[in-house]
Every structure is written in C-alpha cells, then in structure tokens.
Design brief:
The protein has 367 residues and is mainly alpha-helical. The protein has 14 helices and no strands.
Amino acid sequence: MSRYAKRLDRDLARWREAGWVSADGEAAIRRDLSTAESGRLNLASALGILGAVLIGFGIMSFVAAHWSEMPRVFRLALIFGGLFASYGIAGVLFERRHPAFAHAAVLAGVSIFGAGIMLIAQMFHIEGNPPDAVLTWAVGALAAGILLHSRPALALAMLLMCLWSGWEMSLTGGTHWPFLLGWGAVAAAIASERWIGGLHLAAVALAIWIISLGYTLFASDGAGHSIVVVIGLLIAGAGLAIPQIEQRFADWSIPAIAYGMTIAFAGLFALQFIEEAPLSTFILLAIAALVLVLGGIALGLKEGSQALLWLGYMGFSIEVLGLYFKTIGTLLGSSLFFLSAGAIVILLAYVAYRLHARVQPANEVAP
C-alpha cells in the first residue's frame, strides 16, 4: 500500500467517526482506491520488469559471444523467435490479468529487437550512420508501446529518442531539430495513454533539449543561452496563464511554471558563469536570477507547491554559491558578499512571513 493510501485509510476512519463520510461513501472510496492501487507497480512487478530486461540482454550477449559459430539462418531464427516469443508471452499475460509481468515481457521483446538490429547489421555488414540504429530501435519501442498499450515501452522509446538526439549532436556539434519530431510522436502516444508520469518524462526530455540549445545555437556569441532564457520565461508565463485561459489544464499550471523556471535559470546561469559577460551585464544577470528563484519560492509558498519551493531553494543555493566563487576577492569581497547574501535571506524570510500571515484562517485573527 502506498503512503497516500495509508494516510487516506487513516483519514477515512476519522471522517467516518466524525460523521463526514457515510458507510457507503467510504466503501466506494476504498473500492476506487483498490482499483487505482492494483494498476501500480509493486516491488515484485518492478523486479520482474528489471529481470526481463536483464534476461533479454543476457540472452543476446550469449548469442553474440557464439555468433560466428552459428549458421546465418539459425541466427535469424534466434532473433525473430525470441522477439515473437516475448510478445506472445506478453499477450498471454495480458489475457490472464498480469499487466506488470506482461509489460516486462514487452520490454524483453523490445530489448531483443534493439540487440537484433545491431547483430543483423554486423551479420550482413551493413554500414551507415550509427545513431540511425538507435532511432530504429526507438521506433520499434514506440510501436510496441502503442500497439500493446505498454507504458514502460513508451518510456524506453522516449529515452532512446534522447539517446539518438544526443548521439547526433555529439557527431555534428549542432542543434538536432529532428528530435522534435521523434519527441512529438512519443509524447502524443504517452498523452493518449493519459499517463501523467510519462508526460513528466516527456517534459524533462524537452527541457533538457531546450537547455542544450544554449550550447549549440549561436554558440559563438552566447546568444543561444539568451534564447533559452526567453523560452523558459514563456513556458513559465504560459503556466501562470493556464488557470485563467482553460480550467481543464489547471493541474499543469505549477508543473509548467517549474519547468519554465528551471529552463530560464539554466540559461541565466550559463550567461553568468560559462560565458564571459561585462561587469554591468553580470550584475544584471545575477539580479535577474535571484528575482527568478525568489519569485519561485514566493509562488511555491502561496500555492503550497513543494516542487516550486524546493526548486527555488536549490536555484537560490546554486546562484549564491556561483556568485561566491565568481566574485570573492574581485567584485564584492568576502565581507560584502556575506552581508548581501544575508540581506537577501532576511528579505526571503520576510516575504515568507507575509505570505503565511495572509493565509491564516480568519478565526485565528484577534477581534
């Protein structure tokens, strides 16, 4: 049972005793909770998935070790036999209502598919662009995820898309725009499954790609990092506007702000500490970064968002440490630095106090 389920179980008992929840209502809530919990991975299921992936790669490693000794027809039979056997076992497990182990079989099949691409290329002496093999693997994982409604396969497809794009960028040293097509295809498949965790994985992948633009786009003059800052601020602004525009997507307001703030901070950090900026520009960038993270902390306190709060705290700590190592003995001096940092912290404490006072229940205020 998850931590949330345990807490809800205690709360339901308390609410029933207080008369806030009827017996029928409590039973309905427990049934719904049981259904939701049954669809989640437990330790046995997670270990089953990991074991299936390891077995898949272990078999292919064993085959690869004896590859040259096997007839070509037998090699192909092993690859395709293992592939179809994995998906067949997955189908049987889905029918018998063992979804976690079925997903493990799907992952085993996807692993064999990826290893088979490399082995067949070696067998027929196929040469080409190496990242294309990873792209083919990603497309196979995406197809398996869509056809079999396998979330783990879709997660693997997203990771493979990132590996493909990263490999391409390492070879060319430039921006890899085709990543957006691959990312969009996998993200659409994840969205069709209504998988919140997968959408966050897609958001993280896109955020990392956007941050990489600072190092590949107009890298000679550092303008790429400025573009990253603008993109991050636009995403954060869209997150702020979501509740006012479309209430259905209000749950994504805070995540959008968090991702946008992270992207913008990454760009500001690069402009300050990686690129060489004039003193006046450096001071303005430092102020902008501190305003950004303090704004995130203030919004996190106001909205009760732990994610925004801790992102703001981490950003503040990183910025202060960066300023310390960049300016100690040159721009500020140690005593002035600590005085400035202390003033900022006191200001932060005052903002937190004011926000906390505003949300106090009216009945706690003295008449």
